[in-house]
């Protein structure tokens, strides 16, 4: 079966649980459908724990491989997406714990420098996302994890609690704190960037100058 042309969201494939049943029934190639359906969710969940894209992709691969190896253990009483996300989260947490044991405390607490962006990048919506991602990355681990799962991935309180193995009240408390910290961080970054606001960039300057010179000549 050539899956390159298959849209994972095609209704005839059915929900995740139906695809899982077909994979277990021998249609192993259909596992690609499950991978494509959940790549973004697993990326966001692992990225909330590990701030290295390379490590995140390693975690995603390991989670998919482990899930496939234990697919027969999946019980349809739970959502497949929740079961799969738990595997990825546990793998990411294990990697972070190993890294913290190997890394001096001062280095682990150091904030990664925010890469400089050109004025043109600041003008676009992608730059806003960059600022937001930087502020989220700077949050304490436990707050960042809940914020990404609840706000970015839009997981429910119950599902977030199940994935992270914490009470629902803890999810709510951490989300409240995370949002407050995020608001403060974004406000500080915005004020620091104030001197670069409303800059008149070279292309516009050139255009206006040419128009003025043409009119007065």
Q: If you average the pLDDT, what whole number results?
A: 80
- Which structural class do the helices and strands define? mainly alpha
Give the number of helices.
11
CATH class of the largest domain: Mainly Alpha
Estimate the global geometry from the Cα principal axes: extended
Proportion of beta-strand residues: under 5%
- Alpha-carbon distance between the two ends: 70 Å
Low-confidence stretches: 1-5, 105-124
SSE order, one letter for each helix or strand:
HHHHHHHHHHH
CATH level 3 topology of the largest domain: Rna Polymerase Sigma Factor, Chain: A
| Assembly context of the chains | single chain
Structure description:
This protein has helices at 16-24, 31-47, 53-69, 80-102, 105-109, 119-123, 125-137, 141-152, 157-164, 168-192, 202-216. With 217 residues, the protein is an all-alpha fold. The longest helix has 25 residues, at 168-192.
Provide the descriptors you would attach to this structure in a database record.
single chain, 217 residues, mainly alpha, Arc Repressor Mutant, subunit A, 2 domains, 69% helix, 0% strand, disordered N terminus
Furnish the topology, listing elements before pairings.
Elements: H1 16-24, H2 31-47, H3 53-69, H4 80-102, H5 105-109, H6 119-123, H7 125-137, H8 141-152, H9 157-164, H10 168-192, H11 202-216
Helix pairs in contact: 2-3, 2-4, 3-4, 4-9, 7-10, 8-10, 9-10
Gist of the model:
69% of the residues lie in helices and 0% in strands.
């Amino acid at each position: 079966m050539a899956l390159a042309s298959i849209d994972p969201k095609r209704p005839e494939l059915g929900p995740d649980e139906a695809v899982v049943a077909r994979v277990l029934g021998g249609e192993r190639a259909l596992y690609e459908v499950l991978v494509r359906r959940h790549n973004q969710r697993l990326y966001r969940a692992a990225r909330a724990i590990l701030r290295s894209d390379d490590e995140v992709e390693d975690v995603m691969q390991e989670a998919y491989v482990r899930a496939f190896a234990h697919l027969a253990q999946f019980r349809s009483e739970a959502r497949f997406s929740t079961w799969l996300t738990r595997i990825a989260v546990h793998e990411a947490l294990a990697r972070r714990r190993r890294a913290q044991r190997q890394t001096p405390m001062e280095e682990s607490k150091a904030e990664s420098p925010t890469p400089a962006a050109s004025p043109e990048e600041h003008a676009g919506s992608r730059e806003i996302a960059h600022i937001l991602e930087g502020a989220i990355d700077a949050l304490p681990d436990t707050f960042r994890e809940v914020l990404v799962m609840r706000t970015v991935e839009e997981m429910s309180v119950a599902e977030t609690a199940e994935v992270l193995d914490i009470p629902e009240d803890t999810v709510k408390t951490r989300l409240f704190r995370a949002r407050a910290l995020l608001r403060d961080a974004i406000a500080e970054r915005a004020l620091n960037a104030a001197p670069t606001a409303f800059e008149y960039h070279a292309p516009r300057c050139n255009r206006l100058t040419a128009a003025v010179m043409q009119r007065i000549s």
